[in-house]
Design a protein that fits this description.
2 domains, Rossmann fold, single chain, three-stranded antiparallel beta sheet, 12 helices, 347 residues, nine-stranded mixed beta sheet
Length: 347
């Protein structure tokens, strides 16, 4: 029986996994949920992610090695905030396991609930995680889009996600949901993109693009179009930040202002709220070099664009406060960590 999940139809904890039938059945209301490929499907079939249309592992260079690096990067930022063991851990937006494998390899977990909106990507994640010996006493793979009522209250010790909160339209509502399902002293840990950094990035790259366009025939039209489209996408999200109606159909919905997220965390009930800069302000180009190769630009154009970025970016990034001069934040929120007073701290 699945003890870490509840039926989204009747909130019953009496869920039975029928492995041979590839279904999960609620004993109370008899609702059946598909469990093909070992992934329990609570998200309606008409809901999907556009990322299913690409070879996610190839597009984002996902591998066991990159997963270990992703975990090591977040652990280096969080230190002891990210514990070495949890009784029950919930990962949101696992995708194909780009963070999951590193997480479950390095953190001892009694029960792990690994979720994503995509059953297709979770099936790949499951295969990746279980390729070695079991990394937890129990690993459950389940679809979840941040709105299904599938987690009992006060049942989880840590809710964690790597660059997934910006996909959730009502992220403030998700903060409240996470607070409710966390046990006392439970932690909410997410790494997410910074609005102010990306605003400076768009300003810098717009100037780069203008220079490249003015160089005329030295640059191929398809390179200019791809770079221009990417800049436009970022600019669109910056322009309409917080506008749920406009952003609802977009895959990337948010770039975060730390002050707003901190206030939303307090409003949700969290007692300890920390925003930790995530990235190296001395190597701003590292972020750009993670983005541009995904655009399939020609090598010469890519080299020219990054060279111009090195030339132009300081006039925009030098205006940022140190806490905002990195591409992302690590958000660490804790439930009832201090009953006397709330601690509001920037690292």
């Amino acid at each position: 029986m699945l003890t870490q999940l509840q039926c989204p139809s009747c909130s019953s904890l009496l869920l039975d996994y029928k492995e041979k039938a590839h279904v999960v059945i609620c004993r109370s209301c008899r609702t059946e949920f598909s469990a093909a490929d070992g992934v329990i499907c609570f998200v309606p079939s008409h809901r999907f992610t556009q990322l299913d249309n690409i070879d996610y592992d190839a597009h984002y260079s996902i591998s066991n090695e990159s997963s270990q690096q992703a975990f090591a990067g977040l652990k280096a930022v969080l230190g002891e905030r990210l514990k070495d063991d949890y009784e029950v851990l919930l990962e949101i937006g696992a995708g194909t396991g780009g963070f999951t494998k590193g997480l479950l390899t390095n953190v001892k977990v009694g029960s792990a609930i690994v979720t994503d909106i995509s059953s297709k990507m979770l099936a790949v994640c499951r295969k990746r995680v279980l390729a070695d010996e079991h990394l937890a006493d129990q690993v459950i793979f389940s679809t979840y889009s941040a709105v299904e009522d599938i987690f009992p209250a006060c049942s989880v010790d840590c809710v964690i996600g790597s660059f997934v909160l910006h996909h959730i339209l009502d992220y403030k509502g998700f903060l409240r949901t996470s607070y409710d399902l966390l046990r006392k002293d439970g932690s909410f840990i997410f790494a997410e993109p910074s609005y102010k950094f990306h605003y400076a990035l768009v300003q810098s790259m717009s100037e780069v693009l203008e220079t490249l366009v003015n160089e005329g025939e030295l640059n191929a039209e398809h390179d200019l179009i791809r770079l221009g489209n990417w800049i436009h996408e970022l600019h669109f999200n910056l322009k309409y930040v917080g506008d749920q109606e406009v952003l609802s159909d977009r895959e990337d919905k948010h770039l975060f202002l730390r002050e707003e997220v901190e206030q939303a965390a307090f409003d949700a009930g969290f007692d300890l709220v920390e925003t930790i800069p995530y990235g190296d302000p001395e190597h701003i180009d590292y972020c750009l070099l993670s983005y541009l190769p995904q655009l399939d630009l020609s090598p010469g154009f890519l080299k020219r664009a990054t060279g111009l970025f090195d030339l132009y970016h300081t006039r925009y990034f030098d205006l940022l406060e140190p806490a905002d001069s990195v591409p992302a934040y690590a958000f660490f929120f804790k439930k009832r960590a201090n009953l006397i007073s709330r601690v509001f701290k920037h690292a």
